[in-house]
Amino acid sequence: MPDTKDHIVSSFDKELRTIHEIIIRMGGMAENQLAEAVDALVQRDSAKAELVRAEDAKIDALEEELESAVVQLIALRQPVANDLRAVISALKISSDLERIGDYAKNIAKRSIAINQMPPQKSVTSIMRMSRLVQEIVKDTLDAFSNSDKDRAIDVWHRDEEVDEMYTSLFRELLTYMMEDPRNISACTHMLFIAKNIERMGDHATNIAETIYYLSTGARLEGKRPKGDRTSFQVLSPNSDAPDNNDSEIEI
């Protein structure tokens, strides 16, 4: 007769694997959504942007599926110690991935509006920033798949690079707006897109912290590296800009 305890352990492991697989699927979809949303912006492809918006519902559905699986597992198995840590970590990671998907949807929505306007020079900078965040999200998912705390620490530190790129892009866009008021509408949309991408990096960093905790049972020590200086930006209007004066603009 099969050992009942062995059967319970086997079933529990299977349920944990199911939760792990959902996380991997959500991560792959979120990563792809970011790539597709930025492609829609660069290619001025509103049809692709609409597809990105529609696909977000699939990530939401996976998050709900994971939540149901976690609730059922806790109710039936009552996990403790490392097992409970794994289950709670899965909930936190799925929430961060769902938010990454939401930000991709927001980028797609704004790209549809931007596509009705003249092409923007800052699209190239947006593309570079998005590629960096895509790499970070991919490395985060690899760290999760392999329970690699060292890779998670590397991701944690790379968020500062994203912040620095965002600060540079923020300044670039404000300069365009000051040079010509006709740029204000499009550049405002681009500012929101840049912020969405920066927030994706923050959520990837959240996941990295969770992976480290999952692997070690301890929190990452020290303050999270940050390179966002947009709250302290001070710009002087370009001398060739309309309505030039000697004042400075603080954002």
From TrEMBL:
Keywords: Coiled coil, Cytoplasm, Phosphate transport, Transport. It is found in: Cytoplasm. Residues 230-242 have a biased composition (Polar residues). It holds the Pfam family PhoU. Residues 221-251 are annotated as: Disordered. Residues 23-110, 126-210 form the PhoU domain. The keyword Ribosomal protein does not apply. Signal peptide: none annotated. The keyword Lyase does not apply. Residues 44-72 form a coiled coil. Belongs to the PhoU family. Homodimer. PANTHER family: PHOSPHATE-SPECIFIC TRANSPORT SYSTEM ACCESSORY PROTEIN PHOU. Plays a role in the regulation of phosphate uptake. This is Phosphate-specific transport system accessory protein PhoU. The gene is phoU.
